[in-house]
Amino acid sequence: MIRDEPLVLGIETSCDETGVGIVRGHTLLADAIASSVDQHARFGGVVPEVASRAHLEAMTPTVERALADAGVSFTDVDAFAVTAGPGLPGALMVGVAAAKAYALSLGKPLYGVNHLAAHVCVDQLEHGPLPKPCVAMLVSGGHSSLLLVPDVASDVRSLGSTVDDAAGEAFDKVARVLDLGFPGGPVIDRMAREGDPAAIAFPRGKYNDGTYDFSFSGLKTAVARWVEAKERAGEPVPVADVAASFQEAVVDVLTQKALKVCKDNGVHDLLIGGGVAANSRLRALAAERCEAAGVRLRVPRPKLCTDNGAMVAALGSELVASGLAPSDLELPADSSLPIESITL
């Protein structure tokens, strides 16, 4: 580790995770997270007001825990980075306000960064600098995006996105149909290992439509109707087979589209990020298809796929290293920040 590289503290509050990460260059020193997922579970999904209150309560102790884990103090921090969007408006405002307060009180630069670009950049903490260019597929509860990334600090281009439910959202809704609880991604992943992915021929939306876009709403509805038909007939629902067949439909579409983007754009490096990138079947099928296509695959370890402060600090570190100007201390929280706006 090079000690004269800037020390960056990143804050993430776009949804239900209060994340604080500390990075020096491409070295991760601390990744502290306080999750409010248990508070949302009884509602079957994230409640924005509950998330905002949880961020308020968790911010100071999570920052202090990250500093202790890294063995540094506030005076050692060279710059702050914070997720400015996209995300839940109230949740974003908590993180942005906290980052402004820290930066102003310490006289340090502040970088308001894009949540999606941060998901791309976090892989550098594990696998080193990103190839230029690379293709990134980000899949989470709120996003299913295909991006061309010539330079994560200055040039990220959207090529495709979801037209309705994101992949992670579909996992949550199908888990609710199967009475598996919230969040749906991890439990469906576990349940699917006991089922047959070829048991039920669920639809693959927009599979061969010639675009890079996704659609998972029809798949979710097809699962719900299939389960309802079984229940009306008084037959047992084979939950593991439903979970495995649904999951296979999702990852089949995701990997097919991602490899199409790589082929069409002559890019030989694919990065997968976001919470759904922790799914074991997605990782396995992507590895299999990338190897067959001669594409190098990069996927961060599961903990770095879900929302965290490390990814925000990683992008902040990249921006500092690239010599880009910091944000104005009046920067807003932008819930619909487009991916092309890497910083605010």
Automatic annotation (TrEMBL):
Q: Locate the residues binding Fe cation.
A: H115, H119, D307
Q: Which cofactor does it need?
A: Fe(2+)
The record places domain Gcp-like at 28-313
Known catalysed reaction(s)?
L-threonylcarbamoyladenylate + adenosine(37) in tRNA = N(6)-L-threonylcarbamoyladenosine(37) in tRNA + AMP + H(+)
Localization recorded for this chain is: Cytoplasm
Q: How is the cofactor bound?
A: Binds 1 Fe(2+) ion per subunit.
Give the Pfam families listed for this entry: TsaD (PF00814)
Tell me the superkingdom of the source. Bacteria
Task: Could you list this entry's UniProt keywords, alphabetically sorted.
Answer: Acyltransferase, Cytoplasm, Iron, Metal-binding, Transferase, tRNA processing
Instruction: Give the EC number(s) listed in the UniProt record.
Output: 2.3.1.234
Query: Which positions in this protein are listed as binding substrate?
Result: L138, V139, S140, G141, G142, D172, G185, D189, N279
Q: Which GO terms describe its molecular function?
A: tRNA N(6)-L-threonylcarbamoyladenine synthase activity
Entry's family note: Belongs to the KAE1 / TsaD family.
> What does the protein in this record do?
Required for the formation of a threonylcarbamoyl group on adenosine at position 37 (t(6)A37) in tRNAs that read codons beginning with adenine. Is involved in the transfer of the threonylcarbamoyl moiety of threonylcarbamoyl-AMP (TC-AMP) to the N6 group of A37, together with TsaE and TsaB. TsaD likely plays a direct catalytic role in this reaction.
Output this protein's name: tRNA N6-adenosine threonylcarbamoyltransferase
Q: Gene name?
A: tsaD
